[in-house]
Specification:
heterotrimer, A mainly alpha, B alpha/beta, C mainly alpha, B: D-Maltodextrin-Binding Protein, domain 2, D-Maltodextrin-Binding Protein, domain 2, five-stranded mixed beta sheet, 19 helices, 11 strands, C: mainly alpha, MetI-like fold, two-stranded antiparallel ribbon, 15 helices, 2 strands
Chain lengths: 282, 428, 324
């Protein structure tokens, strides 16, 4: 569409629509940020903004009483999500290469399996995993969460990556093979550089998914050894047992949203292409 | 396999502890699972570690905020014979379940005798299962009637000197166009309220709490059960609980009580400390504090004594602990009257040992300390059954929202549901 | 969660590929390729099976027992009794009803809203486009639990601003207790779910929009078709595949809703959904047998939905493939 042709009025309408979208997307985030700057009694002021902006809630979770709880949860969340992402991207890269590129029976089986795993209700496998983990000592450990996280991240990694890989000009690989390179060499020297952006995007999307987990987090952990942030939010407490930890929860929510926002700001174009790749262009 | 897991876990705990503190290798470490508080239990752990002088060291590990979530986590770990659980801060209603399953170590008779001396009866009852003390009473909670003096006066009530009934409170709130502070949220708080009402009316939620699941009999289909339902109905139908009654918890009730339409409220003593803190922070007015009075929990019928709610924390000893003896020793250290007084003053959680109430600091911080002690002596524990979770959840499911409660149907509905659930015929 | 966009297209793509033959005698090279294929894809395949197939089989096995975690001695084999209990209980059917209600409303609203968002992004001015894309990705990437808390606090009668901002609307006043009854609780749960997941659906639709041939649009324009006519006759038919894929995965996703309900109501006011019912039996009540039965039934529901979708929309997937 040639924007030069647009009348002033139409342009204005586009701006209005655009701003509506932005408000839609950011309003709840703004609200939780505002909430995190309220004092305990200000929380009940029923207004959007705090009367006084204070850092108390951040003090509480970062250097105050709740720091053990929050910081260890943050460490767990970051560590577990990164490791799960790494493993699933590595496994998925190999699998997607094979699917996009090689002829072998069972290709369809793998894709169907990935589909089935992706639609799997997490809650259905939590109990058996809990029992198994207890018996083999994985309960409340990092691997105890990393392994189930693979069930969330692996399928999407396989699809996104196969979609990316299908767009790669494979003639180059064939050319390399004609020049005497083995399949493996052709893969490493020609395809890897072409595939890296796709792999990177897949990693970001996987990370979001692992970062988002709640059910595994509350069911398969019980101490600060492995409890991730979403699960830890239920452990905050107010000044006493019966007071609401609203402020601490809001502050923690903001802190865990920051990395997500940074990733989005830096890589929005890639994430969008990653998310939309497979759907139609397949 | 299991044994190896257990020892690996134990070794890990030990290693972490050693790495963290770098102290003498021979000192056994005890892990104390604590409910979230204002840092008091961590401090007590430190004090007792110091007092033990190398005999043991206590480390704390945090449990979730909700009592039911605490139980879930503990039961799951104990079912796995977790040896890293030495001392556990337990909410009383869940003690029978863990004791019945054999998850709690036995407490020797001489220790039992020592730790129950001068302890309020409600706390002893709450820590007893099948006539055996299975946990060490630590702190004990009870609800009082808090009221705005101005409103009470205008309504012609004097709760401090004349015990009041729920009927009077309802009439007063109605005539003064104010809200009554009660807890109508579908959570443990609702069970606490129902239990206190039923007990105050002379009844019991369970007739035979120690019976096996399929033989448990409910006592709700009785005059007491109907009286309790009637009170809830009157409050909810007339909107006296305020607009947020259906999800009002202890904190919500307090906020409402502090507001313009506050009148009378049943709540735990934390509200006193929280209100003072609000004044200090400049969000509440000193005049509000001056207007607050307190009295014993309201009665159901005139002339009858009320049975206030009982809560708090007792210390269980993990049955799979490798240092049961030390853990019992440590628990005894934690619950000394001095430590209980410290905990009450700093964390606002009332002591179970009556001696602690003589502490001058306690008396100063809690002008109503003697009333709390009195209330604890009269308090009624919630049903002590290994199936407490089913009973409580079943009650919450059938008596919520409060506006749906009626004396005709609610006791019957709860009885049917809970009986069927316990027989394994229904979901919950 | 939005784990699932590309799958259906992929599956049909693989099916129609026709390359994984094997009818002709294999050359050494083809054999080596097969081996390599499995070497590369095998680990991912095995991991996926291990983390799901094993647990669900275990869940099925345990669902045949009466087994309470705190009372292991009373464990007893009861055949399919747990399933009888679940399926004859009105609580199960009510949870299914609520879940279906939430799913249908959520997906319907998201489809419309997501399409509108996609149109705005598709046609937006070049200057605006990256900003919109960034904004829209934030709800997608934010933690569901965080979103649930934000919406919960916004509507909560103790801390929310919604009542004071919107008290001029009929039915809303300072005293509106959103979490006090079924309709309003479900409204907030659905609102949070829609806010968080619409971006995902709109991005999928955006990709579909990009596929609609521009010359068809132009031709329709020349023929004098209005904007609506073009939307109905040209745009939507040409992106049917994208729409169906998006709907399938959002439906399955919405059917598994858990986090929002857990944070906001804990199932109060009859807002119990199937996932939460399973959670309550296994994790809260520690009734492993009964809970496993609910879990297995939930799994079967999900399988049924995907089956229906794929059967129903097979044609569309095939035609989508034809375009490639």
């Amino acid at each position: 569409m040639d924007e030069g042709q647009l009348s002033r009025g139409t342009k204005a309408w586009w701006w209005v629509a655009g701003i509506a979208v932005i408000v839609y997307a950011l309003f709840p985030v703004a609200w939780i940020v505002s909430l995190s700057f309220k004092t305990p009694s200000d929380l009940a002021n029923l207004q959007f903004l705090p009367t006084n902006w204070v850092w108390d809630n951040y003090d509480n979770i970062l250097v105050g009483d709740a720091q053990n709880l929050f910081l260890s949860a943050l460490r767990n969340s970051v560590g577990i999500s990164l490791i799960a992402t790494f493993i699933s991207v590595v496994l998925a890269t190999f699998a997607a290469y094979a699917i996009a590129r090689l002829d072998f029976p069972g290709k369809r089986l793998i894709l169907t399996t990935a589909l089935a795993v992706a639609i799997f209700p997490v809650i259905s496998i939590v109990t058996p995993l809990f029992n198994l983990w207890r018996n083999i000592g994985l309960y409340d450990t990092w691997p105890g969460l990393i392994i189930p996280y693979l069930s969330l991240t692996l399928p999407i990694s396989i699809w996104t990556l196969s979609a990316f890989f299908r767009q790669i000009p494979w003639e180059l690989e064939q050319a390399a093979q004609v020049d005497g390179a083995t399949t493996w060499q052709a893969f490493r020297k020609v395809i890897v550089p072409l595939a890296t952006p796709g792999v990177f995007t897949t990693a970001i999307i996987s990370f979001f998914i692992a970062w988002n987990d709640f059910v595994y987090g509350i069911s398969l952990t019980s101490t600060e050894a492995a409890r991730p942030v979403p699960a830890a939010l239920a452990f905050f407490t107010g000044a006493s047992q019966f007071e609401e930890p609203t402020g601490a929860i809001a502050a923690a929510a903001v802190v865990v949203t920051i990395p997500v926002v940074i990733l989005v700001l830096l890589f929005q174009r890639r994430i969008v292409s990653g998310l939309t790749q497979g759907a139609v262009k397949g | 396999m299991r044994r190896r897991t257990v020892s690996v876990a134990a070794a890990t705990v030990l290693l972490t502890a050693l790495a963290a503190c770098g102290s003498d290798e021979t000192t056994p470490t005890l892990t104390w699972y604590i409910n979230p508080d204002n840092g008091g239990q961590v401090e007590l752990a430190r004090r007792c570690t110091e007092a033990a002088d190398g005999a043991y060291r206590i480390e704390t590990s945090l449990l979730p905020r909700e009592a039911s979530a605490q139980r879930e986590q503990l039961a799951r770990r104990l079912a796995a014979n977790d040896s890293s659980i030495d001392i556990i801060s337990l909410d009383p209603p869940f003690i029978p379940e863990l004791a019945e399953a054999g998850f709690l170590a036995e407490i020797p008779d001489d220790v039992a005798e020592a730790v129950t001396e001068n302890v309020v009866q409600g706390a002893i009852d709450g820590a007893t299962w099948r006539d055996q003390l299975v946990a060490v009473p630590f702190w004990a909670n009870t609800q009082l009637l808090w009221y705005r003096k101005s409103v009470a006066q205008a309504a012609g009530l004097d709760p401090e000197n004349e015990p009041v009934t729920w009927e009077q409170l309802i009439a007063a709130a109605q005539s003064q166009d104010k809200y009554l502070g009660v807890q109508g949220i579908r959570a443990e708080a609702l069970t606490v309220w129902i239990n206190a009402l039923v007990a105050s009316a002379g009844g019991e939620i369970l007739d035979n709490p120690e019976a096996p699941a399929d033989q448990v009999q409910l006592g709700l289909e009785s005059d007491a059960g109907q009286a309790a339902a009637q009170i809830i109905e009157d409050i909810a139908r007339n909107g006296l609980g305020g607009p947020g009654l259906a999800n009002q918890d202890e904190n919500g009730a307090m906020l409402q009580f502090q507001g313009d339409r506050g009148s009378f409220m049943v709540n735990w003593p934390f509200v006193w400390a929280a209100t003072l803190a609000g004044v200090e922070a400049g969000n509440l007015d000193q005049s509000l504090v001056d207007d607050i009075g307190w009295a014993l929990y309201p009665a159901v019928a005139e002339g009858e004594e009320s049975r206030p709610p009982y809560g708090g924390i007792s210390l269980g000893i993990g049955a799979f602990s490798e240092h049961t003896d030390l853990a019992i020793e440590a628990a005894q250290c934690i619950v000394t009257p001095e430590n209980q007084a410290y905990y009450m003053v700093t964390n606002g959680n009332p002591a179970s040992n009556t001696e602690a109430y003589d502490d001058p600091e306690v008396q100063e911080t809690f002008p109503m300390a003697d009333l709390i002690r009195e209330s604890l002596e009269a308090a009624a524990p919630r049903p002590q059954t290994p199936y407490y979770n089913e009973v409580s959840t079943g009650l919450q499911n059938t008596w919520h929202p409060p506006s749906s409660v009626t004396p005709d149907s609610s006791p019957e509905d709860a009885t049917t549901l809970i009986t069927e659930v316990l027989k394994g015929e229904r979901l919950l | 969660m939005s784990t699932t966009q590309a799958a259906a297209g992929e599956v049909s793509g693989a099916a129609g590929d026709g390359r994984d033959g094997g009818r002709v005698p294999l050359s050494d090279r083809a054999r080596a390729e097969r081996r390599l294929g499995w070497w590369l894809a095998g680990p991912a395949f095995v991991v996926m099976l291990l983390v799901t197939a094993y647990p669900i089989l275990q869940a099925f096995y345990e669902s045949l027992f009466k087994y309470r975690l705190t009372d292991p001695d009373a464990r007893e084999f009861t055949w399919l009794n747990n399933y009888v209990v679940v399926l004859s209980d009105s609580i199960w059917w009510r949870a299914v009803g609520v879940t279906v209600l939430i799913t249908v409303i959520t997906v319907a609203v998201e489809a419309v809203l997501g399409f509108a968002l996609a149109l705005v992004m598709h046609r937006a001015l070049t200057t605006l486009r990256p900003i919109l894309r960034t904004a829209i990705l934030i709800p997608y990437a934010i933690i569901t639990v965080v979103s649930a808390f934000a919406w919960f606090y916004a509507f909560s009668i103790d801390s929310g601003f919604v009542n004071s901002w919107f008290n001029w609307l009929p039915g809303i006043s300072e005293d509106t207790n959103w979490f006090g009854e079924f309709g309003t609780s479900v409204f907030v749960i659905i609102a949070s779910e829609i806010w968080k997941t619409t971006p995902f659906i709109s991005l999928l639709l955006l990709a579909g929009l990009a596929q609609v041939p521009e010359d068809l649009q132009e031709a329709a324009k020349v023929d004098g078709a209005t904007w609506w006519q073009r939307l109905y006759k040209v745009t939507i038919p040409n992106m049917k595949a994208a729409i169906m894929v998006a709907l399938l995965f959002r439906t399955l996703d919405a059917f598994r809703i858990f986090d929002n309900v857990f944070i906001m109501t804990q199932g109060a006011n009859n807002t119990e959904v199937v996932s939460f019912l399973a959670y309550r039996q296994t994790i809260s009540r520690l009734e492993i047998g009964l809970g496993s039965a609910v879990s297995v039934l939930l799994f079967l529901c999900v399988v049924l939905i995907s089956f229906l979708f794929i059967k129903l929309f097979k044609v569309d997937l095939a035609s989508a493939r034809g375009e490639r």
